[in-house]
């Protein structure tokens, strides 16, 4: 039986918009039918039109601006069951205190009144991220998230697994790894990391979902490894993306 845990991280620029023709046709390459893809996220509150109901969408309150205006309205009125709250707030000048206040003021009512499941803030895996998360979780202990949100970037798969197990031992919630990738500049190492972590997370019951970064035409920044890209510049999928959406268990090339 296929284990569906792999969230497609679909860059918002893939969708067409004013001044951006996008590559919406590229969504047709996705195997949502009999592969391990479970859902789609675009770091936004709006659904990519090209998704067209083929998989669940994960709306994201990316940062504080999404807590008001039309974007908040889209989340409040969304029919999607799971909402992600904050993307690396530890690196975006959002204090645990402010995040916890907005959590109680807006996210908890969203859960209570709309029946949503909530993914807590996805922090970076460094010490600052760990400390930020510990402070936040203490402040929301009366209304904790349904899922623990995490990110991980590195070069050693064993280190990644140790980090996930450390966080699992500290917090009881199932984990959503909303971003993970190798930052190695060696393509063989990138493939080995991806294969090791995908197979580990598929077989770990306390990991609910995970997304490898990322399906986008251009590198997000100099931190991300070019060899970890899941989309080519022309919108076609890389070999790694083809393997991620079809292979289970994954095997090295």
What does this structure look like?
The protein has 253 residues and is an alpha/beta fold. Helix content is 31%, strand content 15%. The chain contains six helices and eight strands, in the order E-E-E-H-E-H-E-H-E-H-E-H-E-H. A three-stranded parallel sheet has the order 3-4-5, covered by helices on one side. A three-stranded parallel sheet has the order 6-7-8, covered by helices on one side. Helix 5 (187-202) links the parallel strand 7 and strand 8 (207-212). The chain is globular, with a radius of gyration of 17 Å.
- Strand coverage percent: 15-25%
Low-confidence stretches: none
Number of helices: 6
On the 0 to 100 scale, the average pLDDT is 97
Question: Can I get a quick summary?
Answer:
With 253 residues, the chain is an alpha/beta fold. The protein has helices at residues 69-76, 96-114, 127-139, 157-170, 187-202, 239-246, and strands at 6-9, 37-41, 60-61, 82-85, 117-119, 148-154, 175-182, 207-212.
Secondary structure topology:
Blueprint lengths: L5 E4 L27 E5 L18 E2 L7 H8 L5 E4 L10 H19 L2 E3 L7 H13 L8 E7 L2 H14 L4 E8 L4 H16 L4 E6 L26 H8 L7
Parallel strand pairs: 1-2, 3-4, 4-5, 6-7, 7-8
Give keywords.
253 residues; alpha/beta; 6 helices; 31% helix
């Amino acid at each position: 039986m296929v284990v569906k845990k792999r969230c497609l991280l679909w860059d918002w620029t893939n969708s067409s918009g004013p001044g951006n023709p996008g590559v919406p046709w590229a969504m047709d390459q996705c195997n949502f039918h009999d592969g391990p893809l479970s859902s789609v996220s675009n770091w936004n509150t709006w659904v990519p039109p090209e998704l067209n109901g083929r998989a669940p969408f994960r709306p994201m309150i990316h940062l504080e601006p999404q807590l008001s205006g039309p974007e908040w309205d889209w989340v409040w009125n969304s029919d999607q069951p799971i909402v992600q709250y904050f993307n690396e707030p530890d690196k975006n000048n959002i204090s645990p205190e402010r995040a916890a206040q907005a959590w109680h003021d807006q996210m908890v009512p969203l859960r209570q009144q709309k029946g949503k499941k909530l993914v807590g803030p996805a922090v970076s895996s460094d010490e600052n991220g760990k400390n930020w998360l510990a402070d936040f979780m203490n402040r929301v202990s009366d209304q904790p998230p349904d899922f623990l949100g995490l990110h991980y970037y590195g070069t050693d798969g064993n280190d990644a697994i140790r980090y996930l197990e450390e966080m699992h031992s500290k917090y009881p919630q199932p984990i959503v790894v909303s971003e993970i990738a190798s930052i190695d500049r060696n393509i063989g190492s990138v493939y080995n990391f991806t294969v090791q972590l995908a197979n580990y997370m598929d077989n770990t019951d306390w990991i609910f979902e995970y997304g490898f970064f990322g399906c986008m035409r251009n590198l997000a920044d100099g931190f991300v490894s070019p060899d970890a890209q899941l989309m080519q510049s022309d919108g076609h999928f890389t070999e790694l993306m083809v393997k991620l959406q079809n292979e289970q268990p994954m095997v090295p090339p």
